[in-house]
Amino acid sequence: MAQQIPVDPKARADDPVRDAERDDSTHAITGDVAYRRLVLVNAVFVGEPGAGDRGWVLVDAGVMGGKGAITAAAEKRFGAGARPSAIVLTHGHFDHVGVLEDLAEEWDVPVFAHALERPYLDGSAAYPAPDPSVGGGLLGRLSPLFPTKPVDVSARLQLLPEDGSVPPMAGWRWIHTPGHAPGHVSFWRESDRTLIVGDAFVTTAQESAYAVALQEPELHGPPMYLTIDWGAARDSVRALAALEPERVITGHGRPLQGAEMRRALQALAADFDRVAVPKHGRYVEAPLRAADGSAYALPD
């Protein structure tokens, strides 16, 4: 089982007192960035409170059954009937697109993702099977039960521009951070050094149901059972650490901020192979990549 980088709880970026002042079920990170935890994954809301219809963006679309929680939080945060201008994806794993098709249809919005994620989002390819032999923990052992089949939002899918811009998110740019998935991206706003990293790294031991429930802050590499290229994952974490962010919002676990977070992130980047990479595993020995097509399985 890989190790973790402990983080002082004072590095948490969410504020329970500030959250209690609102009633939208989200946790504010900055004035215009908040997240809501959906069972085992986070959905991120980008936009000023009260932004109204088409005045905000949803980053990732949670797990199956999470539609009501997302729409309720959006309505309370942005206003009655307020739809986003777009749904933007870090990647297309089942716990990030669980209600994507339903939300995209109901809200009549475009879906933005990296070109290398397209086969998973237009129904033409499935993700490789999870590897339950890595990481230990209940969720890791149950991972073969997790769905890998693609969703199909091809009619609404738009590819992120090659220049790094994110059309529905002014002031943000996307960074290609593969390893966990071929077209995984993170979103970076340099003006306040805010980073939305999806599953490039996480702040909980996602393989462990106990750790997921407890949510104690600690830095980990990407969830092991679905990571298919550990060399690329290492390079992605090092690229993100080099940005020296002020705050990070991950797909799993609590957001973190400040010097203590940066110390832990630098430690994870420097010692990634020992801390994050399993000693053995299906994709440790035989990584899968987009370039040779091995990352794309035939859908059932």
Polypeptide structure, described:
It comes from Methylobacterium pseudosasicola. InterPro entries: Metallo-B-lactamas, NDM-1-like, RibonucZ/Hydroxyglut_hydro. This is Glyoxylase, beta-lactamase superfamily II. 24% of the residues lie in helices and 17% in strands. The chain has 300 residues and is of the alpha/beta class. It has one domain: Metallo-beta-lactamase, Chain A, CATH 3.60.15. The protein has a seven-stranded mixed beta sheet with strand order 2-3-4-5-6-7-8. A hairpin with a 4-residue loop joins strand 10 and strand 11. Helix 7 runs antiparallel to helix 8. It is globular.
The description of the largest β-sheet is: 7 strands, mixed
Amount of helix: 10-25%
Determine the strand fraction and express it as a percent band: 15-25%
Low-pLDDT parts are 207-214
Write the layout of secondary structure elements.
Blueprint: E1 5-6, H1 16-20, E2 27-30, E3 33-38, E4 41-46, E5 57-59, H2 67-78, E6 86-88, H3 100-107, E7 111-113, H4 118-121, H5 138-142, E8 157-159, E9 173-176, E10 185-189, E11 194-198, H6 209-214, E12 218-219, H7 230-241, E13 247-250, E14 256-257, H8 258-270, H9 272-275, H10 282-285
Parallel strand pairs: 5-6, 6-7, 7-8, 11-13
Antiparallel strand pairs: 1-12, 2-3, 3-4, 4-5, 9-10, 10-11, 13-14
Helix pairs in contact: 7-8
Region (Disordered): 1-25
Organism: Methylobacterium pseudosasicola
Biased composition (Basic and acidic residues): 9-25
